[in-house]
Amino acid sequence: KNEVAAPTAVPVEEIQMEPVKLHAVKGADGVQHVETYDATELFDRGGAALSEKRYDDAITAYERLLKEFPNEAKYIKAAIYNEGLAYQGKKDYPAAIAKFQRLMDQFSWTSDAKDAQFQIGASYAEMGNWPASAALFAQILERKDLTPDDKIEALARRGFAQFQLKDFEDAERTFKSVVWFFQAVDKEERLQTDFFLALAKYHLSEIPHALLRAAPLRLPEKQMMVDLEEKCRILLVTQRAHIDAMKLGNPQWASASGYQVASLYAELYQALVHAPVPPELTTQENAAKLDVSSAALRPRIRVLLAPSLQWPAPTLLLIE
Fold first, then answer.
1. Which of 111, 237, 258, 283 is most deeply packed, by most CB within 10 A?
2. How much is the pTM?
């Protein structure tokens, strides 16, 4: 008797496919057609728009992804973060802060939350909300998961906010902390960027520069000589600090320092040209004496303009 063998059981392979959405849209010709898309396509669409600075298109793609594919975990964090970047690109900083805060609230245990917190502080800075920026970076510095790059950036950004608030004493202390921390880790850690270290060194130079601009030249003549000596002292301190910042070699901040060194001598020249005049020379009968005095002064202080002409050329070469 011939028997038919029972078919061998074939294992069934299950493949989990991403959900696909169907959406009826009306084309330019007025005819409706069906548009299909999934989470991957929307995410890629948003990324392409963001890289091309088509911020509204990026926001639309990410919003649709977040609304229609809320369970696609592998895209959610990045979509929220990138949407925040798109709002930053539009300079809509309150909306950007809201997106980054959402990411922090939903994924507080992840490294993405740390990145979002940095972006919130940067957005406050772009808005000119320096107290909020300084306070937020102070909070960030309390985190236990900061890399050396993170710590240097947080310190530098906090110092920058303090500098903008003209809290020069605290700003100087914070910027010096950047330099000290870098020196402590330099032999063991390689920074991904020297941008924020250079930012700190540049602004350590700009603190005495701000004091130089504010330093007065006062009458009588004896007091003016004391004031002038103090101005020159601060100028040399500022110049040395900027040259030190340039030695770090960061192109952006080194060129900025070169510009400021040139400015130092032009500013001192202007301060001397417009220094207060003794009252006895302001009378009509002494007008001629004042003219002679001014004419004699300009050639003597013209030497200050030479460094102002010498520094821009190498600075331009560095920029190029």
1. 258
2. 0.84
What is the chain's pLDDT, residue by residue, as a tens digit (320 residues)? 455 444 555 555 544 445 655 455 565 666 565 466 789 999 999 999 999 999 999 999 999 999 999 988 899 999 999 999 999 999 999 999 999 999 999 999 888 999 999 999 999 999 999 999 999 999 999 999 999 999 999 999 999 999 999 999 999 999 999 999 999 999 888 889 999 999 999 999 999 999 999 999 999 989 999 999 999 999 999 999 999 999 999 999 999 999 999 999 999 999 998 889 888 777 777 777 777 777 777 888 888 888 888 898 889 888 88
Taking CA atoms, 20 is separated from 33, 79, 216, 251, in Å, by: 16, 18, 71, 48
Biggest distance spanned by C-alpha atoms of the chain: 143
